[in-house]
Amino acid sequence: MNDLTAAHQTLPFGTYVMVTNLANVRSVVVRINDRGPFKRHRIIDLSYAAARVLDLIGPGTARVRIEVLKGFRPPSSSGPGAVWVQVGAFSVQENAYALKRQLDERYGGVEVTRQQTGRAVYYRVRIKADEATVKALAQRLAGEGRPVIIVHE
Predict the structure, then answer these.
(1) Residue 78 lies in a domain
(2) CA 8 to CA 37: how far, in whole Å?
(3) How confident is the model at residue 143 (pLDDT cuts 50, 70, 90)?
(4) Residue 59 burial (CB count, 10 A)
(5) Residues 85, 124: contact at Cβ < 8 Å?
(6) Which CATH number goes with the domain that contains 100?
(7) 64, containing H or E segment
(8) Above 90 in pLDDT, residue 153?
(9) For residue range 80-135, what is the model confidence (pLDDT) as tens digits?
(10) Residue 22's domain spans which residues?
C-alpha cells in the first residue's frame, strides 16, 4: 500500500512501468508485484502511494498511459550515492523549467534531468538532498501539496 507498486494481468512480476495520468500529466514509476485488476476496462491497479502521486485518491480511476521501462534498475538503498526528492515529471521541457524556477526561490540544488523511455522523453524536476535531510525535505514539499518521490541513485 505504501510502496510504489501495481497489479497488472500480464506483465511479469518485477517489471517497472511509468504510469501517466492523462488528465493532469503526472507520472510515477511503479513495480508490478501483483495480478489484477479483474474489472472490465481497467488495465492497472495502483497502490495507495502511487495513486496519491498521480492525484487519484478522490476519483479512484482515471485514463492513464503505461510505458514499460526496459533496462530500468530500481534505486539501491545500499552504498553511497545521490539522493533526490523528485517533485515532477513532464513531457514538456518548459513546464519542468517553470517548476524549477518556482522551487529555486525556496530550495537549493533543484535540477531538471532528462529520462528517455521507449515511447517518450520526460523531464524530471528533482532536489538533491542527503540521507540525513531527505525525509524532512520530502515532508516539507508534500506539505505544500507537491507529489514527492525519494530516489536513491
Answers:
(1) no
(2) 6
(3) confident
(4) 10
(5) no
(6) 3.30.70.1070
(7) strand 64-68
(8) no
(9) 567 889 998 888 888 888 899 899 888 878 998 888 777 788 889 999 888 888 88
(10) 5-68
